[in-house]
Amino acid sequence: MSKSTISIHLPDGSVREVPAGTTPLEIANDISPRLASASIVARLSPLSGLSAVASGEESAEEASMYAAPDASAARLVDLSTPLVQDTRLELVTDKDPEALKVLRHSAAHVMATAVLELFPETKLGHGPATESGFFYDFYREKPFTPEDLAEIQERMIEVVERDEKFTREYEMREKALEDFDRHGDFMKTHFVTKFTHPGEEVSFYRNGHFIDFCRGPHVPSTGRVKAFKVLSLAGAYWLGDEKNPQLQRIYGTAFFSQKDLDAHFARLDEAARRDHRVLGKQLDLFSIQELAGAGLIFWHPKGAMIRKIMEDWMREECLRRGYQLVYTPHVARINLWQTSGHEGFYAGNMFTPMELDDAMYRMKPMNCPFHILIYKNSPKSYRDLPARYAELGNVYRYERSGTMHGLLRVRGFTQDDAHIFCMPSQIESEVAACIDFAEAVLKTFGFTEFKVELSTWDPNDRAHYAGSDENWDLAIRSLDNVLKSKSIPYKTIPGEAAFYGPKIDVKLVDVLGRLWQLSTVQFDFNLPARFELEYVGEDGERHQPVMVHRALFGSVERFFGVLIEHYAGAFPLWLAPVQVGLVPISERHAAYADKVEAALKEAGFRVETDARNEKMNAKIRDFANQKTPYILVFGDKEEAAGTVSVRTRGKGDQGSVPLVEFIAKAKTLVATQSTEL
Ligand SMILES: [Zn+2]
Ligand SMILES: [Zn+2]
User: Fold this and answer.
1) How confident is the model at residue 332 (pLDDT cuts 50, 70, 90)?
2) 375 alpha carbon – ligand 2 mean position (Å)
3) What pTM was computed for the model?
4) Rounded Cα–Cα distance for residues 452 and 449 (Å)
5) What is the pLDDT of residues 249-288, one digit of tens each?
6) What is the pLDDT of residues 493-534, one digit of tens each?
7) Which of 290, 460, 646, 649 is most buried per CB count within 10 Å?
8) What pLDDT, in 10s, does the model give residues 100-122?
9) In this structure, what are the phi and psi dihedrals at residue 518, rounded to the nearest 5 degrees?
């Protein structure tokens, strides 16, 4: 039923009665013209019910561009949308993170406008905003050239200068499909068919002569797209299928100001400078060998030294925290993977089977079934619980060729994996201990900021989850309680849990503000049932234990990659593969060099002496290029006084100090795992 007057509830609590059909822009103008010109879009949410924030999930991206919005959720609309019912209204300015997505998607329309003006034969795919910009997929027989991209950028500037209004139009679905079909717009036909229903009106956005099937919202006009850049071109098969035509995806990025755009490129430069693949080569830390295959890591002596320190620290901490260390094989008979369910659910991520004389075998993609077999090997009573088995286990997972990326995406890696078998009453304290441990990992390795997510089930989708309602309720409540009692802020993500249990993910924030998913603490109601695990309770009866999977580095390889980038290869003293570089000024100081080296080694330091007949400055430069934390230089004067001249990474020449004094200070820095020098 339509009303002539509607109530608009504003964020400050005030309510405005306005005629139905009033637009958010009119309301903004009424509040202040300044607010009106700063507004990008409006956020509407229903007065009753949950005011959930629309999610920005990658997988939902396509659907969110076209499909009808969920009526109960908050949604963004154009400033020109006529309001027809009572609603909560928030005017969204460029301060709001969602506004940037709207801007970037609008920039994608501007790009498509430019492309069609320059290359009218092009067919349009779609053009969503991404985490760092936007892209648009095009189909054109002739590939775009770098000169074409420059021309597209120039034409986009013109489209922006024309300041064309983005207006929304509607057409009956059948008519739209007919038109697209007639023009050979096979991608648009696909999207309309997939995301709308027969008999519906579908929505289009027009700016000037350009029109695109889209649900919006958009910025008010092309003139709002102020700072943008066309970046690159990539090929992709339509719908990811090699049998389909190849599309050309043009990437770009856009910001609300030139300043933000410049800062973005500065960040990218900084990220390139820190690229672990480049530093890995420069510092001789690791390699990937063509002859051996993609995604398989060779740890060179210096990288291996850092890995040893990481692993030693991890094993010591595990023992200190009541874990037991185990070792398990790299392969197992296929029967094991059938019992665990991997053969059914996970086969696509595993290396293909290999046939030996007695059976088929597979490389392990996970350690869990092995730890379970250890648990199951002897009867357990409540006195044995919790049983915490930890292993730095090598696992192998199939990644498609061409998708590997340095240490971050590989086919073979080492999980700092542990499985905790416990009674339901022990869940909360075990999870709390896991979170403490995860925090200790991050803090020790120099990360101060992290984000926590709690993935839970969707109770309305019962069929997709293993385990009883009681189990799920207990597990989610426990995870919730632990995070609350530790005052750790977290985001709950309903429906994101694995089918076998809820989980907590810890994402660290690196020095460039990038998020990295590392630690995970995951419940499992499934495997204990599949393997018929038991313990005898205090009541003398048999019960099924609860199982927790947890990995804190996640993957040792990946964590190492993140460490390299976080520190730009300048590792803290306790992790540096060579901690002290020795530079004797001339050959006659060789004996003193031996003495200094022996004293440092005696104190536990990793030392390298540059005894070459080279200029002092060349030796210093070589150590500096290796990002060696301390370089000690000495000649006659130092030898006579029993001192060393200290050059500290990042601080330069610190003058001469007695060797014993240097050793004492450096020892403290190592013992406290300090990130300072
Ligand atoms: Zn659009
Ligand atoms: Zn596991």
Assistant:
1) very high
2) 13
3) 0.78
4) 10
5) 999 999 999 999 999 999 899 989 999 999 999 999 999 9
6) 998 888 888 999 999 988 888 889 989 999 888 899 999 999
7) 646
8) 999 999 999 999 999 999 999 99
9) -125, -75
The label of the residue with tokens 């050959």 reads 587
The per-residue pLDDT for 474 is 86
Query: 337 C-alpha vs ligand 2 centroid, how far in Å?
Result: 13
| Residues 6+ positions from 454 with CB-CB distance below 8 Å | 476, 479, 480, 483, 490, 491, 492, 493, 502, 503, 504
How many angstroms is it from 10 CA to the middle of ligand 1? 27
The beta-strand segments (E) located in 464-532 are 490-494, 503-509, 515-524
Tokens 């060099």 found at: 593
As a whole number of angstroms, the distance between CA 448 and CA 457 comes to 30
Q: Could you tell me which of 362, 660, 421 has the C-alpha nearest to residue 545?
A: 421
**Is residue 440 predicted with pLDDT exceeding 70?**
yes
Confidence at 309, pLDDT banded by 50, 70, 90: very high
**Does residue 606 register a pLDDT over 90?**
yes
Omega before 217 within 30 of 0, i.e. cis: yes
- Least confident range from 39-43, 205-209, 465-469: namely 465-469
With CA atoms as reference, report the closest residue to 439 among 317, 606, 607, 311: 317
The encoded tokens of residue 93 equal 């300015």
Number of H helices and number of E strands within the chain?
21, 32
Is a pLDDT exceeding 50 seen at residue 51?
A: no
Q: Which residue do the tokens 């993977």 mark?
A: 337
For residue 524, count other CB atoms closer than 10 A to its CB: 24
Amino acid of residue 325:
L
Catalytic option among 109, 549, 589, 647: 549
As a whole number of angstroms, the distance between CA 227 and CA 157 comes to 9
User: Which residue in the list 248, 415, 426, 522 is annotated as catalytic?
Assistant: 415
| Cα-to-chain-centroid distance, residue 362 | 29
Of 39, 53, 187, 23, the closest CA to residue 99 belongs to: 39
Q: 44, exposed or middle or buried, with CB in 10 Å at 0-12, 13-18, 19+?
A: buried
Q: Give me the helices (H) in 406-488, please.
A: 427-444, 469-485
Q: How far apart are CA 192 and CA 200, in angstroms?
A: 11
Q: How many residues does the chain have?
A: 677
Provide the pLDDT for residue 511.
Answer: 82
Among 572, 295, 397, CA closest to 287: 295
C-alpha 90/C-alpha 94 separation (Å) is 13
Query: pLDDT (tens digit, 9 = 90+) per residue, 128-171?
Result: 999 889 999 999 999 999 999 999 999 999 999 999 999 999 99
Which structure tokens are listed for 409? 């995406």
Ligand 1 geometric centre to CA of 205 (Å): 6
Adjacent-strand bridge partners of 608? 581
Distance 391 CA to ligand 2 centre (A): 11
Is the distance from CB of 326 to CB of 391 less than 8 angstroms? yes
Q: What is the DSSP string of 278-339?
A: HHHHHTT-EEE-TTT-TT-EEE-HHHHHHHHHHHHHHHHHHHHTT-EE----SEEEHHHHHH
92: Cβ contacts below 8 Å, ≥ 6 apart: 39, 40, 41, 42, 43, 76, 98, 99, 102
The bound ligand whose nearest atom lies closest to the alpha carbon of 346 is: 2
Q: pLDDT > 70: what percent of the chain? A: 96
Cβ < 5 A residues, ion ligand 1: 205, 214
Alpha helices in 332-417 (DSSP H): 334-340, 342-345, 368-376
Cα–Cα distances in angstroms (integers) from residue 408 to residues 55, 306, 371, 564, 621, in the given order: 26, 17, 26, 11, 30
End-to-end CA distance of the chain: 71
Whether 55 has a pLDDT exceeding 50, the answer reads no
Exactly one of 78, 94, 148, 417 is catalytic; name it. Answer: 417
